[in-house]
TrEMBL record:
Organism whose genome encodes this protein: Jeongeupia naejangsanensis
UniProtKB keywords: Dioxygenase, Iron, Metal-binding, Oxidoreductase, Vitamin C
SMART domains linked: P4Hc (SM00702)
Gene3D superfamilies listed in its UniProt record: q2cbj1_9rhob like domain (2.60.120.620)
Protein name as catalogued: 2OG-Fe(II) oxygenase
Required cofactor names: L-ascorbate
Residue stretches making up the Fe2OG dioxygenase domain: 97-192
Lineage: Bacteria, Pseudomonadati, Pseudomonadota, Betaproteobacteria, Neisseriales
InterPro entries documented for this protein: HIF_prolyl_hydroxylases, Oxoglu/Fe-dep_dioxygenase_dom, Pro_4_hyd_alph, Pro_4_hyd_alph_FE2OG_OXY
């Protein structure tokens, strides 16, 4: 293994990990600037799949822009995430075939209520990743990711720019607390192929 031993070990031991400094401040600034320049292409996010998909502001208030693996604006972050995917496969034999991801922005006051990152009847999402793109985020700015842990407690992850949160998609319910200002991230899932 190389740079992601701590992520591998944490997923084995606890099922989740927070890794500060996944991107440098300059890399965060470049990615958030390119994301903000594309703000007009974002759309309100929904819940559910296929015929059950709906936009519901009582549950979820973010706006998203889906990315493909050739997106030039996110190339550096996507390459680094692909290296992490490779190491997770090599160490944990998870069969992760791809990254499904989007840029997300939560306008001030928006949130995402407690949920699990598995669609009903599917198990293709294996590992959730959230890469924060918020330079100079203060403790009073809100917008924490709240992970509900196995023992009934929770932990809050402050969305500091460059920090990567990683957790098992089928294991941890989580929510996004309301933020006091716009909150940006690259969010996605390492997926296995459907059988």
């Amino acid at each position: 293994m190389s740079g992601f031993d701590c992520v591998v070990n944490a997923l084995v031991e606890t099922g989740w990990c927070v890794l500060p400094g996944f991107l440098t401040p300059a890399e965060v600034a470049a990615l958030v600037a390119s994301s903000q320049a594309r703000r007009g292409d974002f759309a309100r996010a929904g819940v559910g799949r296929a015929g059950g998909h709906a936009v519901n502001g009582e549950i979820r208030g973010d706006e998203v822009l889906w990315l493909d693996d050739a997106d030039p604006a996110a190339a550096l972050a996507l390459a680094r995430l692909d290296a992490l995917r490779g190491e997770l496969n090599a160490a944990l034999y998870l069969g992760l075939a791809e990254l499904e991801c989007h840029l997300a922005v939560y306008p001030a006051g928006r949130f995402y209520k407690r949920h699990l990152d598995q669609h009903r009847g599917e198990d293709t999402r294996v590992v959730t990743i959230v890469l924060y793109l918020n330079p100079e985020w203060g403790e009073t700015d809100g917008g924490e990711l709240r992970l509900y842990l196995d023992d009934g407690s929770h932990t809050d992850v402050v969305p500091h720019g460059g920090t990567l949160a990683v957790f098992m998609s089928d294991r941890f319910e989580h929510e996004v607390k309301p933020a006091q200002r716009e909150r940006w991230s690259l969010t996605g899932w390492f997926r296995r192929r459907a059988l």
